[in-house]
Design a protein that fits this description.
The protein has four helices and nine strands, in the order E-E-E-H-E-H-E-H-E-E-E-H-E. By secondary structure, the protein is an alpha/beta fold. Strand 3, helix 1 and strand 4 form a beta-alpha-beta unit.
């Protein structure tokens, strides 16, 4: 489990995206932000990314921002995002200054940050039940219909990071 836990204040940060734009936590218009720490060499991250994309598409218009925080360089991060058809912003943390603040023990690790700056949920690894639970939390807090993110498919229900 990551050092930061549910209920704690999420450290503010600013990172550049692959598009060159600066993304700053608490400076955007999102009602909630899902921050996903990942590595381009992580098979579990590759498994999780299509599901993270589904969360993004389901709730972006309701106020959820999703940011992938890559621990690799822009070229590798861009190739990864393209391969997995990710349309949410990919931010570059190749010097790990933000990763060190959040200190995820494994990747992928996702932090759902509420508009009050608190960590509302944390998810480590790939876990279909957790993806669906986070979907319920997001839908309830944003006042929209729940979308099933991880239905029965050929992928395993859980894969450690």
């Amino acid at each position: 489990m990551a050092v930061l836990t549910v209920g704690q204040a999420a450290p503010a940060f600013s990172l550049k995206g692959l598009d060159g734009k600066s993304f700053t936590l608490y400076k955007d218009d999102a009602r909630m932000t899902l921050v996903v720490f990942f590595k381009t060499t992580c098979p579990t991250c590759a498994l999780a990314f299509p599901y993270i994309e589904k969360i993004y598409r389901a709730y972006r218009d309701a106020g959820l921002a999703v940011w992938g925080v890559s621990q690799h360089d822009p070229k590798r991060s861009s190739d990864f995002a393209t391969k997995y058809a990710s349309t949410f912003p990919i931010l570059i943390d190749d010097d790990w200054h933000v990763s060190k603040q959040y200190d995820p023990e494994y990747v992928p690790t996702s932090f759902l940050i509420d508009s009050d700056g608190r960590i509302a949920e944390c998810m480590v690894a790939f876990n279909k039940a957790e993806l669906n639970r986070i979907s319920h939390v997001v839908a309830a807090r944003l006042g929209v219909a729940v979308v099933t993110i991880a239905a029965q498919d050929a992928n395993p229900p859980f894969k450690p990071g």
